[in-house]
Design brief:
By secondary structure, this protein is mainly α. The chain has nine helices and no strands. The longest helix is centred in the middle third of the chain and has 24 residues. The radius of gyration is 20 Å and the shape is elongated.
Length: 199
Amino acid sequence: MEPIALTASRLQDAALARFALQGFDATSMAEIAADVGIKKPSIYAHFRNKDALYLSLIPLMIAAELDYARSVLVGGETIRQQLHAYLQSIQDRYDDSFRVQFWMRALYTPPSHLYDQVMAPMHGFMDELEAIVLAAIRQSDLVPNAQGLSAEVLTRTCLGLIDCLQVELTYAGPAKFARRLQAVWAVFEAATAARPAPE
């Protein structure tokens, strides 16, 4: 018999895939149990109900997303490449990962009856992500720039780019995502051009 914690983790993995592909309402506890190879009543030894199972995934997703951001956005001379890679990864990771597909669903279409319980930790996530981006920009050559934009303004701009690209991918698909990324990135590069050297 496997440890209780391992069974709970397997249930979370199965639920993650189901919620990502089907959404919350279309997923049943019986399907999740079958995916793990246990009987449906056995789930309740680990999670009170489907709501509790869903909500247990949110902190896991937040931790994974913040770890990913910290691994990519480190500042220094390659900050532009880092930021572009992070933005491009919105689609790349969405295509490759149930975790990111679930994440996007939770951000934009959480179960209506769980909205407040999902959004409260998401606000904390956004604050943490902002701090990561700000630290990376402060440790780079993006400031000073020709436009006189502060690290704080550039950080908020980056968060706006993340939001608009996630929305475009979610509602318009990968082709329009690529087109939007190209456009917003051109503007960001122009906005962060180096200040001309004095003559």
